[in-house]
Model the fold of this input.
Amino acid sequence: MVATQEYKVIGTRPIRHDGLDKVTGRAIYGADVKLPGMLYGAVLRSPHAHARIKSIDTSAAEAMAGVIAVMTAKDMPEAGDELVDLGEGAINFSHASDHIMAMNKAKFKGHPVAAVAAISTNVAREAVAAIKVDWEVLKSVVTVDEAMAPDAPAIVDGWVGDDLGEKSPLPNVGSHFRHEFGDIEKGFADSTTIIEHRYDLAMVHQGYIEPHNGTAIWDQDDRVRVWTSTQGSFTVRTQLAGVLQLDESRIKVIPTEIGGGFGGKIPIYVEPLAAILSKKSGGKPVRILMDRADVFEASGPTPGGWVSLKLGVNDDGKIIAGDADIRFDAGGFPGSPVGAAAMCMFSCYDIPNTRIDGWDIIVNKPKTAAYRAPGSTHVAYAIESIVDEICEKLNLDPVQFRLDNASKEGTRRGDGPIFPRIGNIETVEAARDSAHWNSPLDKNPGNGKVRGRGIASGYWFNVGLKSSVNLSVNTDGTVMLIEGSTDIGGSRTSIAMQAAEVLGISAEDVIPTVVDTDSVGYTDVTGGSRTTYATGFAAYKAAQSLIEELTTRASTIWDIPEDEVGFEDGKFSSKTDPELSMTFKELAGKLNETGGPVSSTGAVDLENAGGGFAVHICDLEIDPETGKTDVIRYTAVQDVGKAIHPSYVEGQMQGGSVQGIGWALNEEYFMNDDGQMANSSYLDYRMPTTLDLPEIETVLVEVPNPLHPFGVRGVGEPPIVPPVAAVANAIHDALGIRLRQAPMNPGRILEALKENNG
Amino acid sequence: MVDKVHVKTTINGQEFEFLVEPYMSLLETLRDVLNLTGTKEGCNDGNCGACTVEMNGRIVDSCCVLGAELNGATINTIEGMATPEGLHPLQQAFLEEAALQCGICTPGFLVSAKSLLEKEPDADEHRVRHWLAGNLCRCTGYDKIIKAVQKVQTSA
Done:
């Protein structure tokens, strides 16, 4: 099937299956879990960003009335130095264990050092406050440049990073890798225009409204049950097995509804603490909730850092050389998404000579995690700003320049792979033809403010990975769909719709349920823009085999050979006898009398996913008196392959765009020199509100993905990639100033204006 | 231990009488004492609006009100929005317009938007955006939430 085909279900906009529970307050999220006899946990966190633990005295806490269990890192099982792939990044279990509760040393402010389970939250908090820690405060390093100094204090004791295959002599290098193709020196020698700059982007948080949570029972048979809101229940199981040193089969993860994740709800935080406290309390259930400051300070924001980029262009207006140096702050342990950044670095362009250096740098900040196209926003800020500058310098049209240099099927990505069929060119063309790009912008509206327009491209590679789906037919002709992908934004429905399309029934007649890890086959995280693609593919396969089963059943009922039964438009019929015909529902009604129930499974492990491209257009208005910037019009154009449920595809594009706008203009971890985050509340971190934004217009481009039966491409991540660069280019259009440090907040704009006028 | 406070209150049209710790917030009281977990905690410091409820005709962040202040008050929460006759038009519009993704902020938005439409049914887009600026959503970019509220306005 290809996306040009007429579909009955795909492309429609049914109401999502879990919608009613979510508009009535009935949906159960992690913090809503309440079990009989449950204890309430609290965590003691390091007040210092870098400090050695000389001793911990928990005696006062243990003596308090209502305290049932107290733990420190001594209660954590010893985890091996084992590296395990989690789908979106790998994990070293000894680091993971040390991250969850500090063994000898706090590596970021908020690093857990002890935890308590008590009869109420209040008692637990009072007990935590009674724990005494004797600290030896160490010098902390919070930026990439500080941490790379040869005399910087080593953050992870005994760590030796890999530097291009050699042992790094620097204490805080997590890793340094390089991708190189063509002849970079010759490329620049042949270039007639060369531009090079460094772009700094701040550490930011995914900002999901629901804080992390975990409720656990560790029973007397060493079986562990964990309720948590997560992007991947199986990934939680893998991590818990490593950290708790148990077989995976002894752990059952029951995913609750999840209040946002964006990459940040893949790692575990409080879950193992709840499990160990449960064990120490004799198997009582223990629930631990983070508060908002904990979420900012001690979950996994996405790295800040910088990208230094040099691009060379020849007289024909072709980019012929690109040299990039990407350095990310990983947080208190190695493992930032700098590898993904490198994969995206040059992806919108066909450049024959490229080199990419990636550096993962340990700093005294929370251990970073994925955030929607992790790393790609950083590299797009650099390359899309320089492309804009090249066009300005050479007086070239920025859209035509992108078309002339566009990557396409057969282009080699900067880290090696050759692109399959991609929709980069079609996306740029759709932006060129959009209402927004073709509308005039009055750059001086007469209110003392100035306006500008910017355009930028972006890419995310998308992932496939493993998913499992079970289907079973009800006698009323509906179908139960059992899946392991937690639903963050309507994926129950986008997956059910793909099964419904195959089965020839309505989306409402497929009833999806997200189940625990005991109840469905292995399924990777809801992340990497893989869920509608890969779990949808598994649903497609399960539906295909359900039709095969039902075809057999129809042949039995009619007593004709199987190959004489056809299935089309939701109807089984004999290819020879026009009298013999049954709808899906009619056949379903006969199953119990003709051999029993019919069910099927579908499982996939997809190596490739087919990448997605986005082009964004931003109009903004700047008040030169205050430096305040308002986005006044915004359009997101994206190749979505095939939109299964267009409303939720638009929603992904709008939500990702707005997160990117927040990053561009406002959001940052404001760290002081001691590694203390000065703005760990929503008031001071200041994410975009309704009032900060205009309507977000969307243009869906559909270049079917040949790797998927319905042409689906992942859509969640590309929309956060272009905004920072689109805003920067619009600011330049308005003020004639290029800002190379984000967020481009009022202070930075005023400073730049002053410098420009001075 | 301090003495618990005796509270008599009306929640979603029903009378409640209970004891509450004097330090407990209205949010904790609703969630932990009364098991009304539809009201969500996002920040516990009055900045995200996920815990919005209507108290004596005004919307408040329930994390910033004490449970003891409930005594004699009338409260409406998300659990009281649908009736036996069906969903509130805003709930229906949120479903039809895909105005929720993860759904954690949805109860707060619905309670806030209901209050706006009761007080200012003709609010223009700017006013709608202004009124809802105290409710954070990280998934949607707000576009479909605003359109859902406007849909109810035009069909009223």
About this structure: Chain A has three domains: 19-26+463-606, 33-138+206-298, 305-462+610-757. Chain A touches chain B through 58 residues (CB under 8 Å).
